[in-house]
Amino acid sequence: MAKKASVRDVRRTNRALLVRHLLMAGETSRSAVGVDTGLSPATVTSVMAELLEERTVREEGFLDSLGGRRRVIVGLNPDAAVLFGADVGETRVTTAAFDLTLGRLAERATSFSGRRIDPEHVMDVVLEHVESLLAELEFDRSKVLGLGLGVPGIVENPASEHDADAIVHAEVLGWKAVTFAGFADRLGFPVYLDNGAKTTTQAEAWYGSAKDIDHAIVVLIGDGAGAGIITNGRLYRGSSSSAGEWGHTKISLDGIRCRCGSHGCVETFVGASAVLERWRGREDSWTGRETEGVDALLAAAAEGDERALDALRGLVEHLGLALSNLVNLYNPQKIIIGGWFGDLIAERFLEDIGSAMRRFSLEQPGSEAVLERSRLGQEAVALGAATLPLDRFIEMGWPQ
Question: Does the structural domain 212-375 have CATH classification 3.30.420.40?
Answer without folding.
Answer: yes
